[in-house]
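Researcher: I'd like a structural prediction for the single chain below. Treat it as a standalone chain; there are no partners to consider.
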Amino acid sequence: MLYSESQERARRFRLALRMGIPILLLIGVVITYMAVQNRFELSRFDIVLVTAVLFISTYFLFFLINLGQAETYIDRMTGAFNRASLLENLNSKIGSHKTYSVILLRLDNLPFINDHYGIDRGDKLLRLFVHLLDDFLKLHDVKEAVIGRYHGGDFIIGLPLPVQKSLELMEEFESTYQEIGHIAVEYKYTGIDKEESTAQTSAVVNHLYDTISQQKSSSLPKRNGEKKINPGTLEREIVDAVKGERLLLHYIPTLNTHTKTIDLFEVGVRLKTEHNGILPPKKFIPVVNRLGLERRFDEALFHAVCKDAKMVESEIRFSFNISPFSLRNESFVESIKKIATEEGVSYDRMIIELFENRPFKDLKRYRVILDELRELGMEFALDNFGAQNASFEYIKKLPVDMVQFDREFTLSYSNPKIAALLYAYINACKSMEIKTLVKWVDNEESLQRFSALGVDYIQGFAVSNRPLDSESLIKKYGGE
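Model: Treating it as a single chain, here is the predicted structure.
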């Protein structure tokens, strides 16, 4: 039996006592009253009294039954804890155990399973998964594991173990149950220690979601030497850093193959926090997106780029990523105009990189705002072109000036199919007067090869072995 189900059984027993004892007491009072009065022959008053007792008892009984159904601890589909009781149990366990860890385990291909095998079979798989996981943990002497279904195929698990041991168990479970009910299952998982989870449980869960969104595989995360981040302070520090515009920019030199000069820099960004140090994008972008700070962050980024751009040669241009959420917001355009005007920077020096992992349905509205920015003089690049189907939708329907190919085209160029696709894409872009950029070019041979293919811009160690910070950029390319 699942720990959640044992807790639910105990809750129902307590509910039965709540239902039964008052009714028995009430009936006992009536019988005692009638015995004291020696009135076992029912008068009209007695009939009314008994009827009232039965009515009140029946009403009270149904009221408690409905209350019991509404207050259930478990997720009806899987038998695991539902979200509310999960968080309540985790709070209790974290407070009562010296060593404790919280794990987010995701059935990563559940949407595929539902699409191809049907939702009913997907639901059965979820329930079987929960029972297999519970049996697996009991087999490894883990008692009273808190297993809760948080959303879809996402399960939060509380274990009285150090996080590394918990993650090792997840890895073993993954290797043991690669198929459930004759269906192949793919997993992702991440975890956090009790000492890292001093914040509210809901904040801990949000931190786990931010972490898992950065993973590309379900392999055991590398934790040696990794700085621990307290989710309780992380969100607050990210908000403060974004609002305070504490952005650290670095500039990746990009070679123009026609002029043999570096006249374009791709902008990378990190965030400076007080207690958690300097955060890379994979640490702060999920939090920025979840908290709805995309526009605030993008305005801060644009402002920082403009401040550096006005200090260097006017021929140098900059490309940087702007969130699709900002680019669908009409007021963002006004912010861009205000910042560029205040800093005195020409719009035609700015290239906005577009990237999404799936096509956006309302491309018509998207294009209205892009056209407005384009009229100011800005250009647009498709980042990671060829990595997602969205790339092809965008190049067909949006005003694209440059294509930045996904690194797979560079790293796997020896594959004849990859080489043929890249050659075809380059020629197609030429016919549409769209410039092309290839990244991860790390040696002279590759640089010459891609230059010969007709690529307009090249980026990588063959061009520069390191990016420049703001100070180095201004010192090397200052416009005096």
